[in-house]
Amino acid sequence: MSEPLRTPTSRKGVRWARHRDQVDPQAIIKEYFGEFSARPAPDHELSPDPAWVDANIVSKTVPLLGTVTCHRLIIEPLREALGHFGQQGLGDTINPEATPAATTRA
To answer: d(Cα 79, Cα 91) in Å, to the nearest integer?
Structure first.
């Protein structure tokens, strides 16, 4: 039996239809997290717009990992998720040394 077609709505009321896809369209991701320009950096990485970085990228302490640097809107969900791991006695399943560091170069 086929799953029904879902039609999610963005915060601005725009509807879109995707069947069997749990990934939001890029436009919705940009609406939520913001959009920035980026330039090539000498180290072959991308250098995002410094104003966007200043407004959106933060370093905060979260359970089990310590200090992380990521988008400001991710901090609380990350704290909650990792706190839940700790409450369930699963903290030893998280290895901060094996976790790739999120890097931002402005």
So the answer is: 13
| Cα atoms found within 13 Å of the Cα of residue 38, Cβ hemisphere only | 14
pLDDT per residue as tens digits for the range 43-93: 888 899 999 999 999 999 999 999 999 999 999 999 999 999 989 999 888
Cα 71-73-75 angle, rounded to 5 deg? 80
Tell me the C-alpha distance between 104 and 2, whole Å. Answer: 42
Q: Please identify which residue in the block is written with the tokens 């915060």.
A: 11
What 3-state class would DSSP assign to 28?
A: helix
Supply the pTM of this predicted model: 0.66
| Strand-pair partners of 58 | 70
From CA 23, how far away is CA 69, in angstroms rounded? 23
- Residue 15 in contact with residue 7, Cβ under 8 Å? yes
Encoded amino acid at 72, one letter: R
Element of type H or E holding 61: strand 57-62
